[in-house]
Amino acid sequence: MAIMATYGFYSHQYEKSYYDKYICNFKLSLTGIVIGKNGIPIGNKAWLIIDVKESNYQDYDERDSIEYVSAILKGKSAIVQCQVSSDYKFGDSIILKSRACQPPLLENYRNGQLVKSTWVALSFNNYLKQKTIQELISIR
User: Fold this and answer.
1) Cα–Cα distance, 85 to 81 (Å, whole number)
2) Which keywords does this chain's UniProt record carry (predicted)?
3) Which end of the chain is least crowded, N or C, by CB within 10 Å?
């Protein structure tokens, strides 16, 4: 019983720390068009390559300061982590919404109709730290 109580305490502490560090601090919002996808080796997830039409940042890249990353923006180009890349097609409209202390929301529209609305996934950052945004965007 003591083991379970200890696990519960540490699990709760980890969860709160995770939310404070990765979710509550995520501030990027953008709209754009899917121009590519890549299968960076991160399990069953993939990155959408986005031609950004509008954003609340010019550049957004936290790879040097946090362990997990869900989006990187450089000018009018972005990569955004998605859960299942087959749900997204070239030319789809994307809206990425940051939300106060909630996981960022990724909405996918095709022909003006909402196709999918889901949380943005987080990826362990080691692979991403080795690449520039231009290298990541060119992997299609």
Assistant:
1) 9
2) Plasmid
3) N
Give the strand pairing for 102-110 and 77-82.
unpaired
Nearest CA among 132, 85, 129, 131 for reference residue 106: 85
Residue 82: closest CA among 114, 116, 120, 44 = 120
Instruction: Label residue 19 exposed, middle or buried (CB < 10 Å: 0-12, 13-18, 19+).
Output: middle
- Angle at 21 (CA atoms; ends 17, 25), nearest 5 degrees: 140
Overall domain count for the chain: 1
Decide if 105 contacts 117 (C-beta within 8 A). yes
Provide the residue type at 113 as one letter.
Q
